[in-house]
């Protein structure tokens, strides 16, 4: 694989509000037409997971959630609404508090370790869950985009995520298609052995796009990375998780 020596990153905006059942592919091609631009072979499109969740109807009304004893206890300790905490517990297999007051770091039932199991508040009345199968969502979007544009692209679905060891959040990949999730390099050692290193390339792509990606209502949920070197593959993010469902 040719090393990446430089790449360009740009958002697709203004981007229309995505509603439940709306086509993200149609929105992307519409913005491209408005910008009088087009995708190129090898582009990597990084798409915010919330846009995918909204499109796929992953909304839960909080008045439909009954908090249990554990959720009520965690709510009192962290200040999160008990109904949201119950959703976090429902979506995860285990969890811990990064500090006495949180955040809640949870192992999502799909295998990801995420702040709040990826549960995202939707105002005061609801919440958004992660896509049911982020890798499958990425493959569907990649296929739709390739059909619509006639060029081969890759798709990474990204989610903002906090770190247990520090304040603030970063951006990681939770789904991918058309791009190998790992970048593997081999280097000779002085003793003649070969040192093999693996990097989570999809996370590097997500983080690069995260500098631009819309957060807290900015309204720019899609970033194009152009000129990035990668190997095409459909293994997905699930293939590199230590704990798979």
Write up this protein.
The chain has 245 residues and is of the alpha+beta class. The chain folds into two domains: 8-58 and 131-240, 60s Ribosomal Protein L30, Chain: A (2-Layer Sandwich), CATH 3.30.1330.100; 60-128, CofE-like fold (Alpha-Beta Complex), CATH 3.90.1660. Helix content is 26%, strand content 30%. It contains six helices and 13 strands. The strands form four sheets. A five-stranded mixed sheet has the order 1-13-2-9-10. A three-stranded antiparallel sheet has the order 3-8-7. Helix 1 crosses helix 5 (134-149) and helix 3 (69-78) crosses helix 4 (82-91). The two termini are 31 Å apart.
Quick take:
This protein has 245 residues and is α+β, with helices and mostly antiparallel strands.
Number of strand segments: 13
- Might you state the CATH topology name of the largest domain? 60s Ribosomal Protein L30, Chain: A
Radius of gyration: 19 Å
Strands ordered across the widest β-sheet: 1-13-2-9-10
Mean pLDDT: 93
What is the rounded distance between the termini?
31 Å
Shape: globular
How many helices? The count is 6
Task: Kindly state the percentage of residues in helix.
Answer: 25-40%
- The proportion of strand residues reads 25-35%
CATH architecture of the largest domain: 2-Layer Sandwich
What's the CATH class label of the largest domain? Alpha Beta
Tally of distinct domains:
2
The SS-based structural class is: alpha+beta
Biggest sheet features: 5 strands, mixed
The parts where pLDDT drops under 50 for at least 5 residues are: none
Topology, pairings included?
Blueprint: E1 8-11, H1 24-34, E2 44-48, H2 49-55, E3 59-61, H3 69-78, H4 82-91, E4 92-97, E5 104-108, E6 113-115, E7 120-122, E8 126-128, H5 134-149, E9 154-163, E10 166-177, E11 182-188, E12 194-200, H6 201-210, E13 222-226
Helix pairs in contact: 1-5, 3-4
């Amino acid at each position: 694989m040719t090393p990446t020596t430089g790449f360009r990153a740009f958002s697709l905006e203004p981007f229309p509000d995505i509603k439940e059942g709306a086509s993200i592919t149609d929105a992307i091609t519409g913005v491209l037409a408005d910008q009088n631009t087009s995708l190129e072979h090898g582009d990597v499109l990084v798409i915010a997971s919330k846009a995918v969740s909204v499109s796929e109807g992953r909304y839960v009304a909080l008045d439909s959630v009954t908090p249990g004893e554990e959720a009520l206890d965690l709510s009192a300790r962290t200040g999160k609404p008990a109904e949201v905490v119950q959703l976090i517990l429902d979506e995860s297999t285990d969890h811990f508090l990064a500090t006495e007051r949180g955040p809640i770091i949870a192992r999502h039932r799909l295998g990801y370790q995420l702040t709040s199991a990826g549960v995202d508040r939707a105002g005061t009345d609801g919440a958004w869950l992660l896509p049911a199968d982020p890798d499958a969502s990425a493959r569907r979007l990649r296929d739709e985009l390739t059909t619509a544009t006639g060029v081969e692209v890759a798709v990474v679905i990204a989610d903002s995520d906090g770190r247990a060891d520090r304040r603030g959040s970063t951006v990681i990949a939770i789904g991918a298609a058309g791009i190998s999730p790992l970048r593997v390099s081999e280097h000779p050692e002085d003793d003649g052995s070969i040192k093999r290193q693996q990097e989570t390339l999809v996370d590097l792509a997500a983080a690069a796009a995260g500098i631009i990606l819309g957060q807290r209502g900015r309204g720019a949920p899609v970033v194009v990375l152009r000129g990035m070197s990668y190997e095409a593959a459909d293994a997905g993010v699930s293939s590199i998780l230590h704990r798979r469902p």
